[in-house]
Amino acid sequence: MNDQRLRLDLTALADEVTSVDLRDRTLRTSRRLGIQRAVATSAAALVLIAAATGTALAIRPNQSPNPLPADTPSVTASPSPTRSPSPTPSTSTSEVPGAPPSGGSSADTSAGQFGKLFYGPAEVTGAETSNLRSWRPGSNPVRLLALPEIAFKGNVGVSSDGQRVAWVDNSNDLFVSDADGSDKHLLRSDVDPYCITAVWSPDGRQLLFRELKATGGSGRFGVLDTRSAEKTVRWWSSEPAACHALWSADGQTIAMNTDTGVTLYGTDGTKRRVLPGFSPDGWRTNDVVSLSPDGSRIALLRHKAVGDAGDVARDLRVNVVLDTRSGKQVTLPLGGRTVRQVYFQSDGSTVVRVQAGSGYAVLLVDEDGKKVSETAEPASLKDMQILAAVG
């Protein structure tokens, strides 16, 4: 009796425990299914809302943006991991060699760009030869051919494409070679090494020079065709009392220093006009440096009339840019700094060298007089001067 009673009690207890366990499992499973259904229902609702919104936008009149193409990548609504934003690539010239000083602007190639600049020693050093150098902002200076000091002092000329160099040596011989010194050959003897520099025509074919008379002194002006087999010369019919010629990029104008100022000539030596504003007892200039492509502006060193006319050797410093018709000064965006040199480029832009701390910087200025960019010169060019801006 007692054994039978014990068996019945144990059976009842087992049934109760199993019932509780199954109920708990059922409740937990029910919760998981409920959560999954809730998530699925919410997602479906979001899809329906998005579809309805898209339909409403599609049929709404006067919509702003056009619908995206069908192959446009979709953007998911799920949150992405937090991370630092990727840096935006910079176009500032401060990220290339020869970076501009603080405040320099980046280049705007639509308004012009730096060509190649050619440099020679700024002062007479006493060395027999020195090397021509070239530099394009954003790259490193390049060492080129060695030239006699007389060439740097008075007459070296670089062609408009930067490929060839012409100069007169101590024997008054006119030479031409490639910029690296190769393909050197004699063009003509008895050439004035000081009064007229080796001035290239814009097409890089002709050279303006002045001959030396057998009896001494300067003689005729001539334009030599460097590519003709006979190296033919077209002689000017006049002999202007002038030196230090510049040839405009449009090929129409040659500017030269006269006794006190500047005169503009045609390419045949015909006198055109005198630059206003110069007189024996007022403003004077001994050195012209650069002429704009159309001959309308000129960069030069201007000073008050004091003492003699100065050394016959050219001086490539610049302190003013003038309009060649009115004689009025052209304003440059110097930012309060001192201008040292100015060169017009064939695209109408201007390279302006300014004092920047203990060194120099070059500015690129567009035709409207607005600064486009600025780059600091390498320290290795500190004791040199710009001889030409080409390309």
From TrEMBL:
Bias (Polar residues): 103-112
Disordered: region residues: 59-112
Segments traversing the membrane: 38-59
Compositionally skewed regions (Low complexity) per UniProt: 72-81
InterPro entries reported for this sequence: 6-blade_b-propeller_TolB-like
Record keywords: Membrane, Transmembrane, Transmembrane helix
Protein name stated in the entry: WD40 repeat domain-containing protein
Organism from which the protein derives: Micromonospora parastrephiae
Lineage: Bacteria, Bacillati, Actinomycetota, Actinomycetes, Micromonosporales
